[in-house]
Every structure is written in structure tokens, then in C-alpha cells.
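Q: what sequence does this backbone want?
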């Protein structure tokens, strides 16, 4: 092949490489592959809606207000229940190095309910210009007890032991929150409409438990496919 022919071939190769690079840049990123089954559903309330009056504050009203809304029964117009924790019972334990946040904000805990994997580091914050003392319990034993006198203060603690952790403020007795610590990441927390989703669950037969701070727990059996979605709905009632 003469010099001119080699030049033409090299030009075509460069042009082809440039086109492929442009095509790769233009195409959207592929969605992550599903590595297990998906569980979806809704949690709804059955029966007469419970009364859930606001809490009357006793101190720091210039920050907290005269009352603070209760977050125990967050039930929507469709009777969907928010803050129900759904957990798959049985998959192998998986400790993690994840992070989470618990904020003292306007004299209530944000989020009110959350679920994390054992091994998660939680950052406890104070967004208020008043003293908060965030005190958490697991089976009546203290998990952490943190004085936060300064606005903007942050303290980190690791949540190592699975269980349902209740959080209180020793300075404001109406403040309550919950951190549900699980052995693996196969859980979800229901949204304002009661909907929930649990992704990438290993295929198999399990028990699925719905837990609410005041309505207790309900358990159902579920068979999770290797790929695809199974729907499991729950109904909770006041006992």
C-alpha cells in the first residue's frame, strides 16, 4: 500500500473513533441492572381514624411555638399511613458503612422515623438556638445520650446493634423519634400515601413485617422472584 492509501485509512479510523466517542457521550447512561426481586405495596389504615392532637409545649416557646404537631398517626386522605417500616425477615446479615442524619429541628426530630442498616454512622444535629439533649434507647438501655447546647452542633455515633431505637429529648419531653436498625438493607419506609418499595431482594420465600410505632406489627409471607416485582399490601388498625 502506498503512502496515500495509508493516510486515507488512518483518516477513516480517526473519524470512526471520533464518531463512537460522540455516540457514547450522547447516549444516556444505562439504568443499573436489577440484582434481585422488588417488593412494592401500600399500607393503609382500617377503622375510625385515631385522634392525634398537637403537643402543648412547656418551654422555649419562642423557638418551638405554643404547640408542636404530633407525628404519631400520619394518615392521608386515602388512609395511607406514613412512617411504617417494612422489613424482609431472613436474608443474611450485611453490615454497612452508610451514613444517616437525625436533626433536632423546631423542637421535633427530623426524620421522625427512619430505618438503617447496622453499622451506619448517624449524625445527630441541632438546628435550633436552644439546648436539646438527644437520648436514645434500645430495650430500655441507652444507645447514645448527647447534649447539644449550640445551634449548628453535630455529633456522630455508630449504630451497631439491630433493633428498634426510641429517641427522646431530655430537655423537651414531647419530642419522640424512632430509628429502626436492621441486619441487612432489605427494608423500606412508607411515604405519605402509604406506598413503599424494597429493591434488589435475593429471591426466595420470606416473611415481610410492617411495623408502626403505635399500631404495632403485622407479618405476611412473600415469595420474591429472581427478577420482577411482587406486591404485598398491608392494613393496620388501632388495637
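A:
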Amino acid at each position: 500500500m502506498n503512502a496515500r492509501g495509508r493516510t486515507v485509512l488512518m483518516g477513516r479510523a480517526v473519524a470512526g473513533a471520533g464518531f463512537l466517542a460522540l455516540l457514547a457521550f450522547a447516549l444516556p447512561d444505562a439504568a443499573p441492572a436489577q440484582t434481585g426481586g422488588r417488593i412494592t405495596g401500600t399500607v393503609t389504615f382500617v377503622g375510625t381514624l385515631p385522634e392525634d392532637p398537637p403537643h402543648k409545649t412547656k418551654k422555649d416557646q419562642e423557638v418551638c411555638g405554643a404547640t408542636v404537631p404530633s407525628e404519631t398517626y400520619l394518615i392521608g386522605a386515602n388512609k395511607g399511613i406514613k412512617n411504617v417500616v417494612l422489613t424482609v425477615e431472613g436474608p443474611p446479615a450485611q453490615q454497612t458503612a452508610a451514613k444517616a442524619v437525625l436533626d433536632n429541628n423546631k423542637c421535633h426530630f427530623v426524620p421522625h422515623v427512619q430505618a438503617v442498616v447496622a453499622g451506619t454512622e448517624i449524625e445527630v444535629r441541632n438546628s435550633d438556638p436552644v439546648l436539646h439533649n438527644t437520648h436514645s434507647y434500645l430495650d430500655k438501655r441507652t444507645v447514645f445520650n448527647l447534649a447539644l447546647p449550640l445551634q449548628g452542633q453535630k455529633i456522630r455515633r455508630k449504630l451497631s446493634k439491630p433493633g428498634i431505637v426510641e429517641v427522646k429529648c431530655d430537655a423537651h419531653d414531647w419530642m419522640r423519634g424512632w430509628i429502626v436498625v436492621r441486619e441487612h438493607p432489605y427494608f423500606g419506609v412508607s411515604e405519605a400515601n402509604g406506598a413503599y418499595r424494597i429493591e434488589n431482594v435475593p429471591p426466595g420465600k420470606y416473611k415481610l413485617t410492617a411495623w408502626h410505632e403505635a399500631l404495632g406489627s403485622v407479618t405476611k409471607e412473600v415469595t420474591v422472584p429472581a427478577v420482577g416485582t411482587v406486591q404485598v399490601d398491608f392494613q393496620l388498625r388501632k388495637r
